[in-house]
Automatic annotation (TrEMBL):
The keyword Glycosyltransferase does not apply. Residues 43-67 are annotated as: Disordered. InterPro entries: TatA/B/E, TatA/E. This is Sec-independent protein translocase protein TatA. Belongs to the TatA/E family. One of its GO terms (cellular component) is TAT protein transport complex. NCBIfam families: PRK02958.1 (NF002813), tatAE (TIGR01411). Keywords: Cell inner membrane, Cell membrane, Membrane, Protein transport, Translocation, Transmembrane, Transmembrane helix, Transport. One of its GO terms (molecular function) is protein transmembrane transporter activity.
Amino acid sequence: MGSFSIWHWLIVLVIVMLVFGTKKLGNMGSDIGKAVKGFKDGVKGDDDKPAAPAAPGTIDVDAKEKK
């Protein structure tokens, strides 16, 4: 089993496109990109940003179940 030539990779690419379709592959690519960006943002951390204060006029209460 030697190394694969460019023709082997082109045939594999055509078969993958026939099975999944170009729209599905594009969606998967964008989902992977969003996941990588989210991971980078998570690693970078949000420690430098101060917490946003509550908007004036809002009331922070706990909801209770009605019986």
